[in-house]
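Today's session is about reading a structure prediction critically. Students often jump straight to the picture, but the first step is always the sequence itself: look for stretches that repeat, for charged clusters, for runs of hydrophobic residues. Only then move on to the predicted structure, which in these notes is written as discrete structure tokens rather than atom positions. Here is the chain we will use throughout the hour.
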Amino acid sequence: MNGVIFDNITVTAGKKKILNGLSCTIRENDFLVIIGPNGAGKTTLLKVLCGLLPAASGTVHILGRPQEEYTRKKLAATVALVPQNMSLEFTFTVAETVLMGRAPHLGLLEQEQVEDYTIAGEAMRFTQVDHLADRRLDQLSGGERQRVMIARAICQQPRIMLLDEPTAALDPAHQLIVMQLMQRLRKEENITVIMVSHDLNLAALFGSRILLVQEGKDVVTGLPAEIMTPENLQQAYGCAMYIDTHPVTGTPRISLVPE
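Below is the predicted structure for this chain, in token form.
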């Protein structure tokens, strides 16, 4: 079954097309990593898929249903977004932040019940932040905050999770923790993961499929070994790259080639 299908998506800002006929089919339980240069429209696409931004044209199907058939609450309970940046203006605790993920499942003015707290606790344990439950977000490291935001998304109990550069500004150890969390979500919770990343090597290591976009258009989609070629990457990024095989995983390994 297909998890997400978007076809001929166009998004405009004034006279400029941010997305220009972007299309892709994402199978259920895929780990799709979206790569491409700055300004290619990757973040814009995530906003379209979770209903935060309307497309000027094109269609989106979520789990076999047109996106417009979903109510806002039902869509939020199905598709969770982990944004790149989080506001620290309000100093909520970890437990309070994660519990916010239950909002799509609650009625107007309805209070959280025992089940909601149980689900939040399970999400914190899954992401290994339960020991930080009473800490404020502004007291956490970048890697800890990222895991808290993933826990909040898990608390929504989504079928599809969208992540916008979740490993940006993290050290290698925390990058690995986040990426392995995504793999566990696929295997243990059957969640379809769609992630934007600028780290080509992480994309090649963990992505089951890669979508390469440039100037708001889909250039190629396929397995990492099919997409991560010198020709494709140089066309998209405008610089030479050397690609060999990772000696441990057998996945493509990308290196920049100085001029």
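Discussion point for the tutorial: The longest helix spans residues 172-189.
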